[in-house]
């Protein structure tokens, strides 16, 4: 089945916000996904369609502090099509858009408990940046996104 | 007591994320405030210090879709200093920074139930944009930031 990658639009927000917690296996993720990411960062945000249905998206932006960096805030893929290359296609398109802007590094964070995400990012060429703590060989920041919200910092040079 | 406005720094995140729910009267706001807003949008994000203590902050950015727009994502002020002009000073500095970038409109959203916020934004010169619903004379979007997350859309020309 062919995957089509296009820019993410504000109209994608309503259908996606209703399913995003399910896509993440029931984890409460919707609070992190404000509509603003679908409105204000179109040049570096993408949706994946398969058979005219949205099956994944990536919300990212160029850093306005560090102009050489782009940041991936959120990626979601319908578990029904996981392993079909949707995440890879979305990241590939993001890297392209970032390069065109003159960006040389892509940053992101993920949960140290999310082994699937860590393995995916390693396969995509991301390195883990130093952290304040370590568990099972993975360096992370214990309260990175607030108390009880540990994150691994990821970086890929593009 | 003098208010000093300066750029928001990543180092401000830890102390602020611990108190932000209290500043909002116990409302669960921390989930909406990822560290990314303290790292990647420094040119348009500000902190207010009073007596060497952070008593408020504003996290905003320039839209990367609509280059003529800037967006205020989050404003927090310590209730102990409310009515001292901290919010006004933060917005004033944000409008200045936005103007320098060539921005002509500032956008934001707030809860239709937050009468204090609506009154504050009206006093700052924000208009309410059309919405899909109306309650007590205020137009709003019922599920703007996801199911059960209604928002009033605000705009000020600068």
Report what the structure shows.
The structure is a homodimer of 158-residue chains. Chain A has 158 residues and is an alpha+beta fold. In chain A, 25% of the residues lie in helices and 31% in strands. The first copy, chain A, has four helices and nine strands. In chain A, the strands form two sheets. Chain A has a seven-stranded mixed sheet. In chain A, strands 7-8 form a two-stranded antiparallel ribbon. The longest helix of chain A is centred in the middle third of the chain and has 15 residues, at 86-100. The radius of gyration of chain A is 15 Å and the shape is globular. The interface between A and B is medium-sized, with 30 and 30 residues.
């Amino acid at each position: 089945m062919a995957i089509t990658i296009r820019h993410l639009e504000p109209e994608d927000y309503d259908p996606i916000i209703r399913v995003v917690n399910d896509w993440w296996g029931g984890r409460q993720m919707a609070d992190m996904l404000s509509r603003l990411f679908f409105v204000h960062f179109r040049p570096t945000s993408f949706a994946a369609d398969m058979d005219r249905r949205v099956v994944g998206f990536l919300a990212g932006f160029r850093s306005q502090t560090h102009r050489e960096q782009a940041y991936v805030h959120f990626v979601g893929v319908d578990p029904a099509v996981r392993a079909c290359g949707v995440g890879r296609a979305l990241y590939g398109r993001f890297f392209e858009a970032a390069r065109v802007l003159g960006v040389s590094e892509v940053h992101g964070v993920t949960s140290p408990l999310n082994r699937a995400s860590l393995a995916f990012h390693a396969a995509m060429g991301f390195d883990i940046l130093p952290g304040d703590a370590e568990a099972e060989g993975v360096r992370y920041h214990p309260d990175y996104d607030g108390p009880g919200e540990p994150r691994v910092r990821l970086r890929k040079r593009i």
